[in-house]
């Protein structure tokens, strides 16, 4: 069975854009190390310029446009979230801390009880 939600690059122009983005990314790394003797300003400037060009090539492709659309949809969904008030958040935090303390005491008591039963009663080891 094929998964209908899997998107593939179909056009030659789109493949060329993605290949160009990858090449620009590799060129950015190569330029950064190749220009190390030119000084940090030239080195970092070339890196940033080629990274921006690589990002620009990626975001003009269909994959980049899909990523932008996904980000915009995510922002819309986050705006729909009903966030708790400060009082609700504080209460829930205190409930969690109280639960952790109770569970820690329960586990400690269980451990000590099992230790007493196994070592003192069953095996007869005294410390």
Automatic annotation (TrEMBL):
Pfam families found in the cross-reference section: SecE
The entry's keywords: Cell membrane, Membrane, Protein transport, Translocation, Transmembrane, Transmembrane helix, Transport
Lineage top rank: taxon: Bacteria
Residues passing through the membrane, by range: 18-35, 41-60, 92-110
Gene3D superfamilies (UniProt xref): Preprotein translocase secy subunit (1.20.5.1030)
Role noted for this protein: Essential subunit of the Sec protein translocation channel SecYEG. Clamps together the 2 halves of SecY. May contact the channel plug during translocation.
Record-stated family: Belongs to the SecE/SEC61-gamma family.
NCBIfam families on file: PRK05740.1-1, secE_bact
HAMAP family: SecE (MF_00422)
Subunit structure: Component of the Sec protein translocase complex. Heterotrimer consisting of SecY, SecE and SecG subunits. The heterotrimers can form oligomers, although 1 heterotrimer is thought to be able to translocate proteins. Interacts with the ribosome. Interacts with SecDF, and other proteins may be involved. Interacts with SecA.
PANTHER family xref list: PROTEIN TRANSLOCASE SUBUNIT SECE
Protein name, as recorded: Protein translocase subunit SecE
Species the sequence originates in: Roseateles amylovorans
Gene that this sequence comes from: secE
């Amino acid at each position: 069975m094929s998964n209908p939600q899997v998107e593939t690059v179909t056009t030659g122009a789109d493949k060329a854009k993605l290949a160009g983005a990858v090449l620009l990314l590799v060129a950015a790394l190569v330029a950064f190390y190749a220009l190390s003797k030119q000084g940090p300003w030239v080195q970092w400037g070339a890196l940033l310029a080629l990274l921006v060009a690589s990002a620009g090539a990626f975001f003009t492709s269909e994959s980049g446009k899909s990523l932008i659309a996904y980000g915009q949809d995510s922002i819309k969904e986050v705006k729909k979230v009903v966030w708790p008030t400060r009082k609700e958040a504080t209460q829930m935090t205190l409930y969690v801390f109280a639960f952790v303390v109770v569970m820690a005491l329960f586990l400690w008591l269980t451990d000590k009880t099992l230790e007493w039963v196994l070592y003192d009663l069953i095996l007869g080891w005294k410390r």
